[in-house]
Amino acid sequence: MTAGTRTGGGKTGRPRVARRDWIEAAYGELARAGERGVAITALAARLGVTKGSFYWHFRDRPELMRALLDRWAHERTDEMLGLALGSTADPRERLRRIQALGREVAPIDRAMRLWAQHEPAAEDAVRHADRALLGHIVACLEDLGFDAREARLRARLMLRVWAGGYLVPESESDPQERTLEILLAP
């Protein structure tokens, strides 16, 4: 059972799940199978509950999908960048951390970008998160001595490398590190 799940669901003996359990299960499915793979029946089976449990917490699938956008936006902006930037003042290290976290979240990032191609709310969420991420990258590059225009250009290139990195297989053991060094070269 997931965190927040309680057993003893009354007469049926089924577990009770919280709204956050549905969101986490759907989030995992979004990362695994994309937006179209998020199905209420499959999620209910995975959680060991009926579809009625879903409708106790959500009006409909679009409400769940909006909750996924909120969950992703929070993770992508607050949690991820907080972890990457929070404990070091060294801009190179912050960029390395952002890059490493980018590899960790690649499956959900890819799913969000594919979803954004046909859903305006997902497109807005991706655009907002990218803007926040670019702002942090630009600040790091400016701290390294790049002027504002050059920092914005390099930040966009870094984001494009990051977003495209999971679409183009690499043969080198750690091409991301080399890519970062190339993008940071004067």
Summarize the structure in short.
Helices cover 71% and strands 0% of the residues.
Describe what you observe in this structure:
By secondary structure, the protein is mainly α. The chain has 2 domains: 10-58, Arc Repressor Mutant, subunit A (Orthogonal Bundle), CATH 1.10.10; 66-184, Tetracycline Repressor, domain 2 (Orthogonal Bundle), CATH 1.10.357.10. 71% of the residues lie in helices and 0% in strands. It contains 9 helices and no strands. It has helices at residues 19-33, 40-47, 51-57, 61-85, 91-104, 106-116, 120-143, 148-165, 175-184. Helix 1 (19-33) crosses helix 2 and helix 4 packs antiparallel against helix 5.
Q: Mind telling me the CATH superfamily name of the largest domain?
A: Tetracycline Repressor, domain 2
User: What portion of the residues fall into strands of 2 or more residues?
Assistant: under 5%
> What is the alpha-carbon Rg in Å?
19 Å
Count the domains.
Answer: 2
Order of helices and strands: HHHHHHHHH
Give a count of the beta strands, DSSP E runs of length 2 or more. Answer: 0
The CATH level-2 architecture of the largest domain is identified as Orthogonal Bundle
The biggest sheet amounts to: none
Mean pLDDT: 84
**Low-pLDDT runs:** 1-10
Task: Measure the end-to-end span.
Answer: 51 Å
Number of helices: 9
**What portion of residues is helical?**
over 70%
Shape: elongated
CATH first level of the largest domain: which class?
A: Mainly Alpha
What name does CATH use for the topology of the largest domain?
Tetracycline Repressor, domain 2
Backbone structural class? mainly alpha
